[in-house]
Q: What sequence folds into this?
């Protein structure tokens, strides 16, 4: 299946593929998703955006298009497992 640029049917608004703690892990998640051909954006969660500056340790949602969410969930969960291992 090919993905067209622009507003294609079924593309829809970005949805969450999970959350991660901290901007460094969020950037790593976005990089891995992009390497897998998945466009991703990062959205700080409300508790992370307190005051004028958001915390580098806050919760950040990894947003992808609905068509990519299943594969993105797997990648984000794998990344979280790697970073939680002792």
A:
């Amino acid at each position: 299946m090919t993905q067209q640029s622009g507003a294609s049917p079924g593309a829809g608004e970005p949805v969450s593929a999970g959350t991660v703690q901290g901007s460094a892990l969020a950037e790593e998640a976005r990089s891995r998703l992009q390497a897998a051909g998945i466009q991703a954006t990062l959205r700080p969660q409300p508790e992370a955006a307190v005051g004028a500056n958001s915390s580098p340790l806050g919760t950040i949602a990894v947003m992808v298009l609905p068509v990519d969410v299943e594969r993105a969930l797997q990648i984000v969960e794998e990344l979280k497992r790697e970073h939680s291992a002792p």
